[in-house]
Amino acid sequence: MASQSSSAPLALLCLVLTFMIIDSHAGVISVYWGQNVNEGSLADACNSGNYAIVNIAFLSVFGNNQAPTINLAGHCDPSSNGCTGLSNDIRACQGQGIKVMLSIGGASGSYFLSSADDARQVANYLWNNFLGGQSSSRPLGDAILDGIDFDIEGGTPQHWDELASALSGFSQQRKVYLTAAPQCPFPDAWLGGALNTGLFDYVWVQFYNNDCQYSGNADNLNKAWNQWTTIQATQIFLGLPAAPEAAGSGYIPPDVLQSQVLPSIKASPKYGGVMLWSRQYDNGYSSTIKPSV
């Protein structure tokens, strides 16, 4: 009896340690905000308690001597300095420990880097107008964003690596987080070179609208996931649509995600969590999956 009673605390300790190890692979949810006026405010998104990272989308025009333009789809009018009030929301989010990024690019933007010098000029613009630098024309006001998200889905694949390097250089003054949203066919056609720099903190791979998405089983998804976790990045996220109508294909019902997908991908030490497109479509998806992420 004495040996049994002494082994009980040991078994309990092992159980606690097991849960601690499992919990160490717990991830967070990242979401895109800014592309539908009906999705609520940025503060609303952060106050939901569901997200650890919010990507403001998009700076959709930049590079090649174009005047940089941010498009927040009716939330505010940047042409009349109408978006500067977002600084209060940004600071409120950051006060909750939420990172707020500016996403550049998008599926329908006009962006193009014509040279290494062009990339450096864009980096300087981003630093001075959204990050830790100084400018009299900061579109989102004086709040300092945490970093830049690369959602590059067009143009050419050249010079994104140089943009990443130039932005990373500013981290000597203040940390600039770099994130990216490549398509899941590996390597990404536009961002492959940039991701090879090894400078990216978080990479949320779009596992939708392509042939490595979940389609009744997780075989293709797991194969692509294992490729992506080989890149030099701090954490890899599973990018998903938050509702069937959020993408042409690739939606995974919460119960399927929790039972068939997350258990295998969470085994990777690079697992960071789930990225959702987008706040507009997230009508309960994030709150349902959060305990399992």
Automatic annotation (TrEMBL):
Keywords linked to the UniProt accession: Carbohydrate metabolism, Chitin degradation, Disulfide bond, Glycosidase, Hydrolase, Polysaccharide degradation, Secreted, Signal
Spell out the reaction equation it catalyses.
Answer: Random endo-hydrolysis of N-acetyl-beta-D-glucosaminide (1->4)-beta-linkages in chitin and chitodextrins
Give the enzyme's main class according to its UniProt record, as a single word. hydrolase
Keyword Cell division tagged: no
**One GO BP annotation here?**
polysaccharide catabolic process
Query: What is the annotated localization of this protein?
Result: Secreted
Chief location of this protein within or outside the cell: secreted
List the signal peptide residues: 1-26
Q: Which InterPro entries match?
A: Cts1-like, GH, Glyco_hydro18_cat, Glyco_hydro_18_chit_AS, Glycosyl_Hydrlase18_Chitinase
- List, alphabetically, the CDD domains matched: GH18_hevamine_XipI_class_III
Name the domain of life: Eukaryota
Which GO MF terms are attached to this record? endochitinase activity
Gene Ontology CC entries for this record: extracellular region
Q: What is its EC number?
A: 3.2.1.14
To which protein family does this belong? Belongs to the glycosyl hydrolase 18 family. Chitinase class II subfamily.
* PANTHER family, A to Z: ACIDIC ENDOCHITINASE, ENDOCHITINASE
Q: What is this protein called?
A: chitinase
Question: Can you name the source organism?
Answer: Liquidambar formosana (Formosan gum)
